[in-house]
């Protein structure tokens, strides 16, 4: 896998803001993954430099931040028990955001089927409905379950269940697979360029 998400890669914290739009006191002259107004211009065609830019954005502004929170919780609490709710919400938001670059219409389920490990594919639509929608819009799970311990994804008497950390690992590997496929898949390339430009243009300079 060429575009591996390396969480040990150094992240520069010298930024005018840790996230969001910048107040125009001193304009940034550097690129920061979490400040879309500093993102490089959208290229005409996909190349390795652009894919590496996306890799950095996904790692530094999304997956790496979640990884840090998980590590902090584990160091303090031992596992995610009684701490996994907000982590689950963050993971579903990251999945939705990353999937939106490559796919249109039911993009979360399409991303899972295209890039997640095979055991998640049959549950792609259910993950969107029972986890993503429920956690983001209702703040709770009503027809599904998350576990802090090792539990493979399964359908238990009509209730979907999986381990939160396993799902995060699947999201990381799925993002890596998406980045790898991006160098050869024309439809994926065009959707990604369009989405990147849409987001970059929406940021306040």
Could you spell the SSE succession in H and E letters?
Answer: HHHHEEEHH
Number of domains: 1
Q: Looking at the structure, what is the overall shape?
A: globular
Number of strands: 3
Structure annotation, total helices: 6
Structural class: mainly alpha
Rg, alpha carbons: 17 Å
- The portion of residues assigned to helices is 40-55%
Biggest sheet details: 3 strands, mixed
Unreliable stretches covering 5 or more consecutive residues: none
Indicate the proportion of strand residues: 5-15%
Mean pLDDT: 83
- Spatial strand order of the main sheet: 1-3-2
Distance from first to last alpha carbon:
35 Å
Structure description:
- With 205 residues, the chain is mainly α.
- The chain has one domain.
- It has 6 helices and 3 strands; from the N terminus they run ααααβββαα.
- It has helices at 48-77, 84-102, 107-115, 124-138, 164-181, 186-202; strands at residues 144-147, 154-156, 159-163.
- A hairpin with a 2-residue loop joins strand 2 and strand 3 (159-163).
- It starts with 47 loop residues before the first helix and ends with a helix.
Task: Give a topology summary.
Layout: H1 48-77, H2 84-102, H3 107-115, H4 124-138, E1 144-147, E2 154-156, E3 159-163, H5 164-181, H6 186-202
Parallel strand pairs: 1-3
Antiparallel strand pairs: 2-3
Describe the structure concisely.
With 205 residues, the protein is mostly helical. 53% of the residues lie in helices and 6% in strands. Strands 1-3-2 form a 3-stranded mixed beta sheet.
